[in-house]
Design brief:
Number of strands: 35
Radius of gyration: 25 Å
Structural class: mainly beta
Largest sheet: 22 strands, antiparallel, barrel
Helix content: under 10%
């Protein structure tokens, strides 16, 4: 780690000496909405926020959403570079996947069907996204459950502009017979706007699992997705803006049996519908927002076992259905020129139905055959939960450069009762160049419907929410001529009452309990150097460490448990406009060593995964105003590496195509 920090310091010094003037807008004046729920300059908030702009998204057509997020400081997405159809797990600052809240256009999106409620990144193509704001640290005051490590707000593309009709098309082809078409139409005027798009994606993929014995019998596990999005906007003078929307996505693919285990007839499919309406009313200086969202998710898994790949391979089926209703009503009120208040009430309702069944028969040991069947059912008549949250936050901005935000939330849950959270976030902008910030905030995650109502529900007591407190501090530097923008942040996150899967040592009964304590800490260094209008150099280094404290018999035991998460990630990206029409970008990411569990042996054991470095390249050429050609090459050096033990990662691969916007 020391060697990497020295290398980073040398690069900083060298690039600072070579940096040139820039006419780009200053990073400190960039306006974000996720930090406070209303537009605010980054210089006026002490929260740690990263923005992925429209320009970056336009140059990410050859990536999926998980690969794009995997390039951001402090984030690792496990499975981002595995088989395209494999599940993706996001680790923000090393926290487990369901500690990051995903929002779309400011609305929290939950999956009521699984053992965790985290959003499936495969559902939303990059082509439909206008902007992404990543807000780090505990954020439950404004956003409720799941926002322990942070919030990722995905803002979709809207209509508008001066054109009534503006068609667009993107077509790509790449490695593994990968094809993608995104087509649609957008437009608008003074009173209304619209954006309607359709995306089709299909790939033959690779074998999801690793052929450890090199039998050459493992088949490819393909994946296909179709997505539709429709956003509409209606304005009533300067009084109201009404924005109904609909998003529908379905995908299907093939799975392998397990790590190092192939399966030729194991399939899955998913359908997801999100629809709702966002309303903003202007009453003098007061803004009133009313949001409603409905999410329907259906997942099916089926293995007919006609082609047995292992002695354990058997018939299995699983059906999962979940519904989520979310309502949020909040106001933003300027009290004084330097003081404002944001507060509201939100409501969340979730139900689920789950039916699983299977038949198995295998040789347990020579002469002993294990066989039987299993099945379970969760019914939405009983598997339901409701939450009502009341929240508020004050923001004070002084001409001296001092800013502070403070607020709290009271949450009532239909199963476990009440809980509360708070946040205090002061910052100071010195000479419009140095921003010093600190943050103390608490957060929570409610139990999922599966944890509450499956056959593994706690028979003795209701589960409590998982609770966290995060401490952050750091400094950000903005050069007066926008030569350099650099941020250093340090964080410490403590979680208690973590929900774990427990086996009673006396009865061998399995159920969920609140038990573990998790302590994580780390830091991030993010310098960016701009070179006139020609390009920029972006460097990053993130480090995280952590340990869990759990019960081992009657005693507590602590150990490192951030499995599949590298302690350190270094990144460097150079963007450069070679000519007015030709743009190129080269990036390097170095991922440190990780640990994983090898379940292919008995007993299972901890295995270390080697560090690896990926080199990527992107180029685009603006042939005419309406037509752009591009190519995206990942893992140029064809590095062999492992993201998940027993599963394959992609070798050298490319996507190339064209974009037309009239």
């Amino acid at each position: 780690m020391t060697r990497r920090l020295l290398t980073l310091s040398a690069l900083l010094a060298a690039m600072y000496a070579q940096a040139q003037d820039s006419t780009q807008s200053k990073a400190m004046d960039e306006v974000v909405v996720t930090a406070t729920k209303y537009p605010k300059k980054t210089s006026e908030t002490g929260k740690v926020i990263t923005v992925i702009t429209r320009a970056q998204l336009d140059r990410s057509t050859g990536k999926d959403l998980s690969q794009l997020l995997n390039e951001q400081t402090g984030i690792s997405v496990n499975g981002a570079n595995s088989n395209p159809g494999k599940d993706k797990s996001i680790y923000l600052r090393g926290a487990k996947a369901d500690y990051t809240l995903i929002m779309i256009d400011g609305v929290p999106i939950y999956d009521a069907t699984g053992s965790s409620s985290n959003f499936d990144f495969r559902l939303l193509p990059v082509d439909n996204i206008e902007r992404i704001e990543i807000l780090k640290g505990s954020q439950s005051t404004l956003y409720g459950s799941d926002a322990i490590a942070g919030v990722i707000n995905i803002i979709t593309r809207q209509g508008g502009g001066n054109k009534l009709i503006s068609p667009f098309l993107t077509a790509t082809y790449g490695s593994y017979e990968t094809r993608k078409i995104n087509a649609g139409i957008s437009g608008g005027g003074d009173l209304a706007s619209y954006n309607v798009g359709y995306t089709h994606y299909k790939t033959d993929g690779i074998s999801e699992s690793t052929d450890k014995a090199n039998t050459s019998k493992f088949d490819k596990d393909g994946y296909e997705q179709n997505s539709f999005i429709a956003n509409f906007g209606f304005k009533v003078k300067n009084i109201a803006k009404i924005t109904p929307y609909l998003r529908y996505s379905k995908y299907n693919g093939r799975l392998d049996s397990d790590a190092f285990a192939d399966d030729k007839d194991y399939t899955y499919n998913l359908k997801n519908l999100q629809t709702g309406i966002r309303n903003e009313f202007t009453l003098g200086q007061v803004k009133l927002n009313l949001l409603y969202n409905y999410t329907l998710t259906e997942r099916n898994y089926f293995n007919d076992s006609l082609m047995k790949e292992s002695p354990y391979d058997g018939y299995s089926t699983g059906y999962y259905k979940g519904k989520e209703h979310f309502i949020d009503a909040y106001v933003h009120v300027p009290i004084l020129s330097s003081l404002s208040f944001t507060g509201g009430v939100d409501y969340r309702n979730g139900v689920t139905d789950v039916t699983t069944a299977g038949i198995y028969k295998f040789d347990l040991m020579p002469g002993v055959i294990a066989k039987g069947s299993y099945g379970s059912t969760i019914n939405s008549d009983s598997a339901k939960q409701n939450q009502v949250g009341v929240y508020g936050a004050f923001a004070f901005t002084d001409k001296s450069g001092f800013n502070i935000e403070a607020g709290g939330r009271f949450n009532h849950h239909s199963v476990y009762g009440n809980n509360g959270v708070f946040n205090v976030n002061p910052s100071f902008l010195l000479n419009r160049q140095f921003k010093i910030f600190a943050n103390v905030s608490t957060a929570y995650k409610v139990p999922t419907l599966y944890q509450l109502y499956s056959e593994y529900q706690n028979p003795f007591t209701a589960l409590d929410p998982e609770k966290a407190i995060t401490y952050e501090g750091g400094v950000q530097y903005f050069s007066t001529n926008n030569l350099v923008n650099a941020r250093v942040a340090v964080f410490k996150r403590d979680v208690k009452d973590a929900i774990v899967f427990y086996t009673d040592p006396n009865t061998f009964a399995n159920y969920y309990i609140n038990q573990d304590k998790q302590k994580d800490w780390g830091f991030e260094i993010e310098p960016t150097f701009n070179f006139r209008n020609k390009g920029q150099l972006i460097l990053s280094y993130a480090y995280v460490d952590g340990k869990v404290t759990t019960k081992n018999g009657a005693k507590d035991t602590s150990y490192f448990n951030l499995l599949r998460r590298p302690k350190s990630i270094f990144g460097a990206t150079v963007n450069y406009h070679i000519t007015r029409a030709l743009f190129a970008s080269a990036g390097v990411q170095s991922f440190g060593k990780r640990s994983d569990i090898d379940f292919s042996t008995f007993p299972s054991s901890i295995t270390n995964l080697k560090a690896y470095t990926l080199v990527n390249f992107y180029a685009e050429y603006q042939l005419i105003k309406a037509l752009k050609l591009f190519i995206d090459v990942k893992n140029i050096t064809n590095t062999s590496y492992v993201e998940v033990l027993g599963y394959n990662a992609l070798g050298r691969n490319f996507n190339a195509g064209l974009t037309v916007r009239l």
